[in-house]
Every structure is written in structure tokens, then in C-alpha cells.
Here is the input.
Amino acid sequence: MIILACDHAGYVLKEQIKSFFNKENITTIDVGCYSNESCDYPDYAKAGNEKVLEGANNIGIYICGSGIGMCMAANRNPKIRAALCNTANFASLARRHNDANVLVLPGRYMSRAKAIRIIKVFLTTNFEGGRHLRRIKKLKGGN
Here is the structure.
């Protein structure tokens, strides 16, 4: 399942992304926000994280103005590996090397077309495992 979350600065891009998924008949869960009225990104990162963690295959797509705040808020949860990606290459690396389960996008600095390209790469790239698995275990507090 794809979980969408944003603050007011990411609202327009989130709605564009949601429309893309709807046209592709891909179901999403939208945890907000639901307008461009000022709100607090940590609230929506938390709501998104809760939904992402409900299923092992769930992926989050979070959006705020720069992406930085949403990424920081999402990564407060040790089971979330959120990656702020400005390029498709970053999205690929985030999945292949970091097993990212949340993609964060900068709503004020990204077009719909670029966002869709990045999302497609993020959703179709698999974790490589191997030496990268050892590093992910360290992120989780293991040796």
C-alpha cells in the first residue's frame, strides 16, 4: 500500500501524485493534510509512519516545502528509513542501498512530472541486501 502524507506546502504536489495513482488504478491511503492551510508537518509524518508500519510492504510518500522537515520528522521513528530524493538516481540508491520505506519530496521545488519519474523509480527498485543489510542492521541498533 502507498501512504501519502504532506503539510500545507506539499498539498498541491500530493494531490497531483494522488491523481496520477488514481489514473493508474493504484490504491493509496491519504493521511493528510487536506488543504493548503498552514499545519505542522510532524503531525502528518507521524500519521504516515503509523500507516507505513502497519504492513511490511507499505511505502510512504511524504511531501513538505523543502522535504527536510518531513524527512527529519519521519526518521524520528527507528523503523522508518525516509529518504529525501531530488533525483531518480537518489531514489534508486535509497531503495537499493538503504532499503528506504519512505520517499520524501520537496513540494516547493519539484514539478509533477519530475515527482512521478522519481516515484516510479522508487517503487520499482529493490533492496540489494548483502553488505547493505549489515548497515541497515546497524541503523536498527544491531552490530
Notes: The longest helix spans residues 11-23. The mean pLDDT is 96. Strands lie at 2-6, 28-30, 59-64, 82-84, 102-106. The chain is about 45% helix and 15% strand.
